[in-house]
Write a structure and sequence with these properties.
Elements lengths: L13 H18 L7 H10 L12 H12 L4 H25 L4 H12 L2 H8 L3 H22 L4 H15 L3 H15 L8 H23 L3 H10 L12 H8 L5 H13 L8 H16 L10 H16 L4 H23 L9 H6 L1 H4 L4 H15 L4 E4 L2 H10 L8 E3 L17 E4 L3 H7 E2 L2 E5 L14 E5 L1 E2 L3 H4 L8
Length: about 500
C-alpha cells in the first residue's frame, strides 16, 4: 500500500451493498411513525424556529434539518426522520466501501455491510432525528477518505476529508476528537508522510473555516458547550453512564455475538503486512477510548469508529469463513447476523406495543423518551386553563417545553419557557405575566424562585412506561419571586 505503487482494490460489490443499505432505509422508514417524538426531536423542532450558527449543546445542522423537514410535512414523524434513515443507510454503505478500500473482496464487503446493518447503534440512531446519526456517517466518510489517501498516495482526497470534518463539526464538536486521535495515531504508528502533505493542512484549514461560525457563536456566548460537556461528564444527562462502563458498552454497540468481527479489526493491521499502514485506525480507537474514559464521555461517542473497524475485521473473518469448516462457519455467522438483527430491531425500534415496552426501555432509555408527550401537553393544558389568563408555562427541560410548543396550539396554549440549554436564550417571559404553570420542577426550585405554589397533577402516560417524565409534578404558582427579567439569569442550566 505504498504511495509509489498503489494497489488496485477489488471491485465494489455494488448490488448487494446497495440492496442491504436500501433494506435498512426501508425498515427505518417503515418504523419511523411508531410511538412518538423523542425529547431531542422536540427540541430540534423548536431550535429550528430560532436558527442560529450555534446552540449551547450542538451546531446548526440538525435544527436546520428539522426546520426543513417539518416545513415539507408539518407534524409528520416519518418525514422528520427520513434524513436519519437515509444517513443510517449511508453509514451501512460506507462500511462496505471501507472494506473494499482496505483490500476486502466481495465476501469481506458483505460481512462488513451486514454487521453494520444489524448494529444496534446504527438502527437506534437511524430511527430518530439525531446529531449522532450524522456523526456516524461523517466519521465513516472521514475514515474512508483517509484510507484512500493512504492506499493511493493521492493526498488531494484529504481536502474532502477536511470538508467532511467541517460539516461534522457544524453538527457537533465530536469530530474534533477523531481528528486529534488520527493525528496522534499517525505520529505513533504512521504513515508519517501524511503529515508532510500540504493537502492535509489545507484540509484542516478548510475544516476550521467551515466550523468557524459555530466557534464565533460559542465565543460570543462564553462557551456554553464547555458547561454542557462538563455536566455530561458529571452524569448530568439521561444517557450518561459511569466512565468505567464505556469499554464494556462497546461490545453492545454492534452486537454481543458479532463483536469478534470488529475486535479482529483492532488486531488485523498488526498481524497483516498488507494492512500495516492502516494501524492508525485501531490506535485511534484506543486513543479515543482513553480520552472518553478520562473525560467522562458517553459510551456511544465511539460508535463512529465501528465502520472502519468492521471493514478491517471483515478481511480475516472472510478467511475464517473460507476455511476447512467453511460451511458450518457460514451457518454460524448467518445465525449471528439474524439474531443480532432481531435483537437490535427489538431494542432500537418501536416493535413492541408501548404498554409492553418496559423491558425495552430498561435497555434503551431513548425508547422511553418517545412515549407520552401528547398526554403531558394535555395535562399542562388542564393546569394552564385553571390558572387563568396571562399564565406562563415554565418547564424543567427542553423536552417538556418542546412538547408544549408542538402539541400546545391544539389546546390553546402559549409558547413554553425553560432555562434548559437553548431554550434559555429564547426567554424570558414578560414581567407583566400572571400566574406560572411549573412542569417537572423539583420542590426546592419551586420554593426558591416562585411563590404560592400548589401541585395540581403528576405526570403520567397511558402506556405506564417509567420514563424521565413519569412521576414529576405539575404545579400552579401565584407568580415568580421577582420579575422574570431579574430571575431569568438564575434559571439557566446546561446539560
Amino acid at each position: 500500500m505504498s504511495s509509489a505503487a498503489p494497489l488496485e482494490p477489488p471491485p465494489v460489490a455494488w448490488r448487494p451493498l446497495l440492496a442491504i443499505s436500501a433494506a435498512v432505509a426501508v425498515i427505518l422508514v417503515a418504523a419511523a411513525s411508531g410511538y412518538g417524538y423523542h425529547r431531542d426531536e422536540l427540541y430540534f423542532l423548536e431550535a429550528g424556529h430560532h436558527l442560529r450558527f450555534g446552540y449551547p449543546d450542538q451546531g446548526p445542522l440538525t435544527p436546520l434539518l428539522a426546520r426543513v423537514m417539518s416545513g415539507i410535512a408539518p407534524g409528520s414523524l416519518t418525514v422528520l426522520r427520513l434524513p436519519s434513515a437515509l444517513m443510517a443507510a449511508g453509514t451501512v454503505l460506507i462500511t462496505g466501501l471501507l472494506a473494499r478500500e482496505v483490500g476486502g473482496a466481495r465476501t469481506a464487503q458483505l460481512i462488513a455491510t451486514l454487521c453494520c446493518a444489524v448494529a444496534s447503534a446504527v438502527l437506534a440512531v437511524g430511527h430518530l432525528l439525531s446529531t449522532t446519526t450524522f456523526d456516524l456517517l461523517d466519521w465513516g466518510v472521514i475514515c474512508l477518505l483517509v484510507a484512500r489517501a493512504i492506499r493511493t498516495g493521492s493526498r488531494a482526497v484529504l481536502l474532502g476529508a477536511g470538508l467532511a470534518a467541517g460539516l461534522g463539526l457544524l453538527n457537533k464538536p465530536l469530530p474534533a476528537f477523531l481528528l486529534l486521535a488520527l493525528g496522534l495515531a499517525v505520529l505513533a504508528v504512521g504513515p508519517r508522510e501524511l503529515l508532510r502533505s500540504r493537502w492535509l493542512w489545507l484540509g484542516l484549514l478548510l475544516a476550521a473555516a467551515v466550523w468557524s461560525p459555530w466557534l464565533v457563536w460559542q465565543a460570543q456566548h462564553h462557551w456554553p458547550q464547555l458547561k454542557v460537556s462538563s455536566n455530561i461528564a458529571k452524569g448530568g444527562s439521561a444517557s450518561s453512564q459511569s466512565r468505567w462502563v464505556l469499554l464494556p458498552f462497546q461490545f453492545l454497540l454492534v452486537s454481543p455475538v458479532l463483536f469478534p468481527v470488529w475486535a479482529a479489526g483492532l488486531i488485523a493491521p498488526f498481524r497483516s503486512h498488507r494492512l500495516r499502514r492502516l494501524r492508525l485506525f485501531p490506535v485511534s480507537w484506543l486513543i479515543l477510548l482513553a480520552i472518553f474514559t478520562i473525560t467522562g464521555g458517553k459510551p456511544y461517542y465511539l460508535a463512529g469508529m465501528f465502520p472502519v473497524l468492521l471493514a478491517l475485521g471483515a478481511i480475516p473473518t472472510a478467511r475464517w469463513l473460507s476455511g476447512a469448516a467453511g460451511r458450518t462457519r457460514l451457518r454460524v455467522f448467518g445465525a449471528a447476523v439474524i439474531l443480532s438483527g432481531v435483537v437490535s430491531a427489538t431494542i432500537a425500534l418501536p416493535v413492541l406495543p408501548a404498554k409492553h415496552a418496559g423491558i425495552v426501555v430498561a435497555m434503551n432509555s431513548d425508547i422511553g423518551e418517545t412515549i407520552g408527550w401528547p398526554g403531558l401537553a394535555g395535562q399542562v393544558a388542564a393546569a394552564y386553563h385553571s390558572a387563568g389568563p396571562r399564565a406562563v408555562i415554565f418547564t424543567r427541560n427542553y423536552g417538556e417545553a418542546g412538547a408544549v410548543d408542538r402539541y400546545g396550539p391544539t389546546h390553546g396554549l402559549p409558547q413554553a419557557f425553560s432555562g434548559h440549554n437553548g431554550f434559555w436564550y429564547w426567554g424570558p417571559p414578560r414581567d407583566a405575566s400572571g400566574k406560572v404553570v411549573l412542569v417537572g420542577l423539583p420542590r426546592g426550585v419551586e420554593e426558591a424562585y416562585f411563590r404560592g405554589c400548589r401541585a395540581v397533577s403528576t405526570i403520567s402516560n397511558s402506556a405506564g412506561v417509567d420514563n424521565e417524565e413519569a412521576g414529576r409534578t405539575i404545579a400552579i404558582c401565584a407568580g415568580p419571586s421577582r420579575p422574570w427579567s431579574r430571575l431569568w439569569p438564575r434559571l439557566r442550566h446546561f446539560n
